[in-house]
Amino acid sequence: MDFNKILIRWFSDNKRDLPWRRTKNPYFVWLSEIILQQTQVKQGLTYYEAFVNQFPSVFDLANATENDVLKLWQGLGYYSRARNLHASAKHIAFNLNGAFPKNYNGLLELKGVGDYTASAIASICYNEPKAVVDGNVYRVLSRYFGVETPINSTKGIKEFKDLATTLIDHNQPGDYNQAVMEFGAIQCKPKNPNCIKCPLNTSCKALKDNIIPNLPVKLKTTKVKTKFFNYLVIKTNTQYTILEKRTKKGIWQNLYQFPLIESEQNIEELFIREHNTLKNIVGKENFDITKYNEKPYIHKLSHQHLHTTFWIIESNINYRDSIHIKNIRKYPTPILIANFIEEFFD
């Protein structure tokens, strides 16, 4: 059976009409690939269109401030993608005169570009036969060939990459790569795939052995951690508040937040009043404090769950480095903070 030819033919008949598929311009393909990392197409499409409208060229993106990029990215999560996107745009614009690297190896040198992204861009834009392997591809290959090696093991990563490489169509590598990813996204879905109408059903090992739900195999990951976040929302009678920039490395690096107290469990007002983080802001001045949400909001990230409480600190004093509430939406914040701002500062 000609696996790749069947998929390319299926792709021609069934592919979704997406804007980045109408071009081979590496800027737009790169932009879409970075946005779609860890993001579903439905959500990513809106962000892609916003980025293209605001930054129609790599020079526009390079000349933007990091705050502008992070603000536009707000809500997508995995903010290191946005920081790397901006850094690579500046490198391409200012060091490479706006010219994207023309092959897989050159693309790998861009910050935030790994094997998958470099393979996608190289095959789609430059017709280089480099096989992509993402979650959709793992699922399609593991089921069709009955591969039970864990996809997140060292052995599995190499095995699936080698297998994908042997299958790529050297005449149409870009079409094939997009076909196998699209096939996994809308045909060979994680749950309840439509095997009856699958063009590969007569030779699919998992279907034959009735093990579709068991593949792909994935090793259990590290246990999710629980953290307790307490945000101090300063609100003065003159409508000023305080936001702080997160400078330490982490998922929210360079985003803004209200002053934060981390704790090992849910805490009460007295703990907040006596904490140095609050004392360093208000000093000895009088203030009122109220708990905004009685039950913590639980914000789930891939590796941790944040139990979050917002404490409203009302005062008559204008504090150093405070900002007017009317300007608060100009700052890039984690979606957890952005949602609170929309709810509280209406």
UniProtKB/TrEMBL annotation:
- Keyword annotations from UniProtKB, A to Z: 4Fe-4S, DNA damage, DNA repair, Glycosidase, Hydrolase, Iron, Iron-sulfur, Metal-binding
Q: Which Gene3D superfamilies match?
A: Helix-hairpin-Helix base-excision DNA repair enzymes (C-terminal), Hypothetical protein, domain 2, Nucleoside Triphosphate Pyrophosphohydrolase
Known catalysed reaction(s)? Hydrolyzes free adenine bases from 7,8-dihydro-8-oxoguanine:adenine mismatched double-stranded DNA, leaving an apurinic site
> What EC number(s) is this enzyme filed under?
3.2.2.31
Q: Which residues form the HhH-GPD domain?
A: 35-186
InterPro entries with a match to the protein in the record: A/G_AdeGlyc_MutY (IPR005760), DNA_glycosylase (IPR011257), HhH-GPD_domain (IPR003265), HhH_base_excis_C (IPR023170), MIG/MutY (IPR044298), MutY_C (IPR029119), NUDIX_hydrolase-like_dom_sf (IPR015797)
On cofactor binding, the record's note says:
Binds 1 [4Fe-4S] cluster.
Q: Where are the transmembrane segments?
A: none
EC class (word): hydrolase
Protein function: Adenine glycosylase active on G-A mispairs. MutY also corrects error-prone DNA synthesis past GO lesions which are due to the oxidatively damaged form of guanine: 7,8-dihydro-8-oxoguanine (8-oxo-dGTP).
The family line of this record is: Belongs to the Nth/MutY family.
This one is known as Adenine DNA glycosylase
